[in-house]
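fold-stage: in
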Amino acid sequence: MTSIPTRILVANDQEWTGRSLESIFEAEGWEVLRAYTGLQAVDRSLEAHPDLIVLDFQLPDISGPDVCRRLRADPRVGWATPIVITTAGSNGRARQAEALEAGAWDFVAQPFDGPLLLARLGTFLRARMEFKSAQALAMVDEGTGLYNARGLSHRLQELASDASRRHQPLSCVVLSVVMPDLAEAAQAARDLDRTIGRAIRDAVRGSDAVGVVGPLEYAVLVPTMSQQAAGELVHRIERSVSALRPAGVPPLRLEAAAVDVGASPRLEEVLGRTPRPVPQADPAGSSG
């Protein structure tokens, strides 16, 4: 059985430092990917799904902690991927606190102690492998990177509790893709599932929680958004889905409805309610 090599993303715009880390990791047989800016680190992390990410604190565009926060907020990376932030500058208490509060698992100052660094990362990678082996029980759908029903149910409890405290609305938009002869296009449907997931993710806000609730069925938990305002969200998703539709796939019809979550919700109850029609958004886009 061929093992898949450990994949490490190193984000550092200093060539000497990057090469130093690369040589340490490649000596362990790890595959090393490079990024030179914060935004490039975000993109490569979401595309390549590395097992561990090493970020420099001071990248040329956005800081390592900012990159870390963005990746922690995206379920394709979430909190299960080890992220380590390094620094060649000050390693004082305030900088360490900023890195750890952003979600880094560790904060390492240069110059690097190779054996000690490998011991730390080895522990993190073992934890990562444990997570991957139990991913079937996790809260993220592996194919789309969205929450699965279990994950969305957990997130619903959190968002509903926050909405209740703030006396703000929380809506749930349920979407079903209707595709002719779907039974005869199982593989196309699986590919389409990934595309639709990406399109929905691109259309919603960072605070919204997107999950898979069935084959080509998705739900979006939208804090602070009423059912009336959810109409514009549906139109944004429709435009995003249309833009990403793969070549050769027939035109898609998106069926959507929004329900008010209400108090003490359970995901099964929310999805099982007779959905109310989504109000038509203002053509001028003024439905906020």
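fold-stage: in (second)
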Amino acid sequence: MMTIEKKVNGDTVELCLNGWMDTQSAPELAAALAALEPGTKQLIFNMSGLEYTSSAGIRQIVAAHKKMKGALTLTHLSAEIMDLLHMTALDKKLHIEP
């Protein structure tokens, strides 16, 4: 199960992801992405509460990166999720902050 908390600051939207992002919960993130305001210029995924992501979650991260034309930042990744992004070489394509 995953919960998503949305914080808006001007044209920046931060989505705080908590729990597990898998095939059952990844559609929730897809819905949150579809509901972004048209004027959103920067998207932040705060992953401090995200314990696990499957390939379905990785697909949503890539979809967000494409939708935002690169204006996506991932923050507070666990070592396990960072390792997964490294293994898939996404750590070289995505903007990641500590």
